Amino acid sequence: MNVAIMSIGDELMNGFTIDTNSSWIAKRILEYQSLDVVSKITVKDDPVDIKNNLDGLIKNKVDYIFITGGLGPTHDDITKKVLSDYFNVDLVLNSSYYSRLKLFFKDKNIKKSSNLKSQAQILENSVPIPNRYGTALGMKIKHKESIIFVLPGVPKEVKGMFEEGISSLYLSPNFKKEKKYITLLTTGIYESKLFDMLKDIIKQNIDDFSVSFLPKYTGVNIRLSKKESSACLEDFKNNIIGKVGKYVYGFDNQNMENIIADKLFSNQLTIAVAESCTGGYISKKLTDISGSSLYFKGSIIAYGNSIKEYFLDVPNELLSSYGAVSSEVAVKMAESIRRKFKSDIGVSTTGISGPDGGSEDKPVGLIYIAVSMKNETIVKKYNLIPYRKEHRNVASHTALNMVRLLIK
Amino acid sequence: MNVAIMSIGDELMNGFTIDTNSSWIAKRILEYQSLDVVSKITVKDDPVDIKNNLDGLIKNKVDYIFITGGLGPTHDDITKKVLSDYFNVDLVLNSSYYSRLKLFFKDKNIKKSSNLKSQAQILENSVPIPNRYGTALGMKIKHKESIIFVLPGVPKEVKGMFEEGISSLYLSPNFKKEKKYITLLTTGIYESKLFDMLKDIIKQNIDDFSVSFLPKYTGVNIRLSKKESSACLEDFKNNIIGKVGKYVYGFDNQNMENIIADKLFSNQLTIAVAESCTGGYISKKLTDISGSSLYFKGSIIAYGNSIKEYFLDVPNELLSSYGAVSSEVAVKMAESIRRKFKSDIGVSTTGISGPDGGSEDKPVGLIYIAVSMKNETIVKKYNLIPYRKEHRNVASHTALNMVRLLIK
Description:
The structure is a homodimer. By secondary structure, chain A is an alpha/beta fold.
């Protein structure tokens, strides 16, 4: 069955807002055996454009059409009005939902806005899709051979409404797919190098599997997809791991933070961080995970040399003879934070994220990362991408990967 | 003149990757007087789909077509091959670019991959668009009434190649627009409330200006667009500010971090942070800005109570009688970090980001934020969105906004 996703909004067309909803929905649809996303389009807040595009999808007999955006309370939110015109059906108030909305605003002590009522209106004969994450009520419309889901544009609302009001109710659990995709997360190796290592195996299995390489600055994801075939995806995955396993740190929806969290938790280890150039990014990543207080003790962000000296006990002589960006200082930082915060692991970074501060000896991109554990402290020097934003992200990712490899 | 953006990639269609390129290009195109984005489509790595969609755009006489994606070194990168078929033109090696690539890999001591050559190939008679940020060479193709720019899919490469190899060369500077858009960044107020305050003024000016509300968890952006009219956008902006100015913290491409950076720098003030629930997020935001070492001293991330006690001098009695999440502890944290790190401003957060740790008295979402300056310490209690990821982001944003208001 075919699925189309139509994202409505001037702000999407002119680029003021990045459309994450269509990707999220598409990725979720992948999990259903018999559903296939065939169209993803962006449409302006324009009645004619919206009607024409919707009409095209309905004429093409697309089974499920997801419409997001334009359900808000302001004058530029026109989706419901346009659908009411297109289907020639009135908008009616869903009174139970409206009561809940009023109650919510009363509880929060917010003066009710005059256009709150519009948020609880849907097309007559449509089925409401409740919204626990915002104010706009969604709806399901059946028309000719298509089922149309109409959702707001706020990502959190789309996700919540899809999970609670669409997937289990309408996209029958029978659709659940056998696993046809596996993604291997790699880091520390170039895409072209990976491809070189894998091209023979890819060629040998070309009838059964397709392999895609998705490069990001923090690493390359390798996605394995099974074609219409009886071959075993798990076997193919193990084959691939046989070749490039040392670069693989996780699978599918995992990320470095979650993997580190699991490792620290299951090994009952605690961690503390001394950050210079990463400026809090490692700590932020570690605490993104709920329950991180079980293993994360805290950090000292030592941006200036005086903080390194007085709060991380880095001797002034070390700073003046080797410079703040040096393996000696990184080691001292990691050992000090571990000792001071009484953690099992201490991690430190000191480097030059740029754009300024580089020299011939110590160019932008240079970083020293140290990890201190009970019996050893390891320090590594990297020349990472010399752009500030990416440098800080890759540096934090690399530091966590060093921790991962050491716990292993 | 019309512009279309075609993003190629299975990973975009199935949602594994979010398409940020089309938004970025669209936003950049907005700056040109006579260019208008009329189409944004996502296409699979499928020769027929790519050809059909391109053919449609060329038949519709779209003036500029931007194609991104599928230029990489691996077997699933088929864009060049498909274009070569479609235009019936051979791929040829651009030898000067190939020499540069080889040199780059030699410099980096990376074993040259066997398929590097393909990265330097473009269509015969096309004009090369160099890529300083990655390996794939781009190209400009003239066909019938359309000019087609072909770029890789990596966002950093798209941006660099657009700025260095397309905008000034081909999208003549004459196109530069008079300013037709202003975005006001607001925080601390609901969208529906803002709309209530502005609906009369919007109605009165409906012939000259359109107004869009773009809600995010950290605030609502209000975008003012001038229609075909001789009215003054600046006057209209000032009118709007007259109504809702106290919620406006910036304009257009500014963000809270940049605004704080400017304020701290121009007032020659330094800052230090004591973070509990935000776990490094505030420090990360502050150091996202290059040159932040001029005003950012450092932070202590005090996740556990013992760190609050021993490194931020929060008395144990305070922690046990009021709890770690309390205004008393927030004040002490802000004052201690300011004194210890010898900064002009100390900021602190202590709260419950969830999903666990909430109680009836202190629910998930609760946070105390304190800002300490020379003559005063201010502390505020907020009940923010009770979802971990958003809570941490909104909390960090709110803390920086408190700093902004105090410096002002």
